[in-house]
Write a structure and sequence with these properties.
heterodimer; A: alpha/beta; Rossmann fold; 2 domains; seven-stranded parallel sheet; five-stranded parallel sheet; 18 strands; 27% strand; globular; B: alpha/beta; nine-stranded mixed sheet; two-stranded antiparallel sheet; 6 helices; 15 strands
Chain lengths: 324, 250
């Protein structure tokens, strides 16, 4: 059996989620006696592709085609489907991010392979194939059975973790040229790259501000702590609706759903819509002046107090620890 | 230009989610059903585009897969400003089943832009739009945050891994949309509600040639989080130490 892992790259390097997916695939492979094949589309350093072996891949299919420089869903779906057929993949893994959301539904329909997105743990059973996923915005967990031989899963970033790499020799690398249909109806007008910031969807630590921050002029505090922790910044819905912060930072229902290791909520009351976006965080810290705020129902640690006073103190204390 | 907006109905976000029948199904008692928030935003944008002076948008159709009890949700979409509606008479089974029902119906129709929500607030699968595009063999653009008609051009903004892009797209295409495409959902005015009653709502028979790819076997309530450990206001230092020594996160 083959598990095909879609490894995403940025600026010639595989992103962390790629290694996390391979780690997950390795665990599944051990239980199902399968091999792990990594698929890489784009111009990726050979050293990076080599590294996949240390996490469990024995083979890499790499495609470097100019026509794939722009993500055209249809093209990409054709290419991934072609590789899946060629490698006879029974399980296909993609990240649960914009790329996974763009490709997996079409891939599922094309291959008639059952798709479960946002799978946060190893399968409950393999025959029948049952996985758990959060539904109703995190208020319930469903056991989903995939009825087809071929299965597609997406994993949220940071949900499974990256295993400790071990030296495993080199993977077999095949440079592949797909013959999938290459016609496209979309043209790139402009691209705005986010290179200087930690991506919210991938961040291990997120510092987030709500209406309690009082105004955009106070975001320096959020950014300072985020910088110190190598964290991404986020916000609650009223903050982005007011235009204090861009919509891309909005976390919650209809915004981004994230699962960082640490989520620090500053001046966020914790409306149910917000909690829907953060409930998979491993640890939640809340700073809010209202002791009754619902954010404290989901928080692991909290401070009841004025965020404008508490946040600089917290930043100072963390700085002291970092410097020690 | 004709726009089709696919809508699903989901429990209102504040609804308490419980399960019955040995945790095999949702307890629908007391649940308020609403248009899926992502779909509501896409419909809102379609209406905004149609209302723009000199707009090329001739009509907005909404389509929904569901049984008769979902008609109030469809009427709400008409009250918001859709021109006509189609209900495909079937109990949704999984995303593939819904997408296939939609594809069978839409295949013989003529739309320039199809909008679906990027995600849904029930099964959170982000699936139907992409599956539908694939079955219609149509171009799809995912995670769309803006849709603008500028002269002959159709421009969309989308999120991609590591940034945002503006694309020029030739119709027909399908876009799965998210927040940003519109900010606040359109709230139906009384006049809209009155007009919605007489707008056409066509009920079409479902095909029985479609089988789902997945099955929701059972549900469980997530374990409650442990009680919050609170520190006094002046003791941010202690919190920092707990995060360092106890949680080992910083």
């Amino acid at each position: 059996m083959t598990i095909l892992v879609y490894t995403e790259n940025r600026e010639g390097r595989l992103i962390k989620a790629a290694f996390e997916l391979i780690s997950y695939a390795k665990e599944v492979a051990q239980k199902t006696n399968a091999r792990v094949v990594a698929l890489s589309i784009g111009d990726v350093n050979r050293d990076e592709l080599m590294k996949t072996a240390n996490y469990g891949a024995t083979r890499v299919v790499t495609i470097n085609d100019e026509k794939l420089s722009l993500m055209d869903n249809k093209r990409y779906i054709s290419v991934v489907a072609e590789v899946a057929e060629k490698e006879q993949a029974e399980i296909i893994l993609l990240p649960d991010n914009t790329t996974g959301k763009a490709l997996t539904p079409g891939l599922s329909a094309k291959l008639k392979a059952g798709l479960v997105s946002g799978v946060a743990s190893l399968p409950q059973s393999y025959d029948p194939f049952i996985v758990k996923k959060k539904v109703y915005s995190g208020k319930s967990i469903a056991n989903v059975k995939i009825l087809t031989d071929r299965k597609i899963l997406t994993l949220p970033s940071n949900s499974f973790g990256v295993i400790e790499p071990e030296s495993n020799g080199e993977p077999q690398i095949e440079e592949f040229t797909p013959d999938a249909d290459m016609e496209s109806k979309i043209n790139l007008v402009s691209m705005n790259k986010v290179t200087d910031k930690i991506l919210l969807s991938e961040a291990e630590i997120v510092v987030s501000g709500g209406r309690g921050m009082k105004g955009p002029e106070n975001w320096g505090m959020i950014e300072e702590l985020a910088g110190l922790l190598n964290a991404a910044t986020a916000c609650s819905r009223p903050v982005s609706d007011e235009g204090w912060r861009p919509h891309s930072e909005h976390v919650g229902q209809t915004g981004k759903v994230i699962a960082p290791n640490l989520y620090i909520a500053c001046g966020i009351s914790g409306a149910i819509q917000h909690v829907a976006g953060i409930s998979s965080s491993k640890c939640i810290v809340a700073i809010n002046k209202d002791d009754e705020a619902p954010i404290f129902d989901v928080a692991d640690y909290g401070i009841v107090g004025d965020v404008q006073k508490v946040l600089p103190q917290l930043t100072q204390a963390i700085k002291a620890i970092k410097e020690a | 230009m004709k726009i089709l907006v696919c809508i699903s109905e989901v429990p209102d976000t504040t609804s308490k989610i419980k399960h019955i029948n040995d945790n095999k199904e949702l307890d629908k008692t007391g649940i308020q059903w609403i248009i899926n928030p992502w779909d509501e935003l896409s419909l809102t944008r379609a209406i905004e585009l149609k209302e723009t002076p000199g707009s090329k948008v001739e009509s907005i159709t909404v389509v929904h897969v569901g049984l008769q009890d979902s008609e109030p949700t469809i009427r709400k979409a008409l009250a918001m400003g859709a021109d006509n509606a189609i209900r495909i008479d079937a109990q949704p089974q999984d995303a593939y089943y819904v997408a296939s029902q939609l594809a069978k119906t839409i295949a013989s129709m003529d739309f320039d832009i199809i909008l679906t929500g990027l995600d849904s607030a029930d099964f959170n699968g982000s699936s139907v739009g992409g599956m539908l595009a694939q079955q219609l063999d149509m171009a799809s653009i995912s995670a769309v945050t803006a849709l603008n008609l500028e002269g002959e051009k159709i421009l969309v903004n989308r999120d991609v891994s590591g940034g945002t892009q503006t694309l020029e797209v030739q119709p027909p295409f399908l876009a799965t949309v998210q927040k940003g495409i519109a900010i606040d959902p359109r709230i139906p005015a009384m006049r809209g509600i009155m007009m919605a009653r007489s707008k056409p709502l066509e009920v079409l028979e479902a095909t029985n040639e479609v089988t789902p790819l997945t099955e929701y076997v059972s549900y469980e309530v997530p374990p409650p989080r442990e009680a919050c450990r609170k520190f006094p206001e002046e003791n941010a230092k202690e919190l920092a130490h707990a995060l360092h020594n106890e949680a080992k996160l910083i």
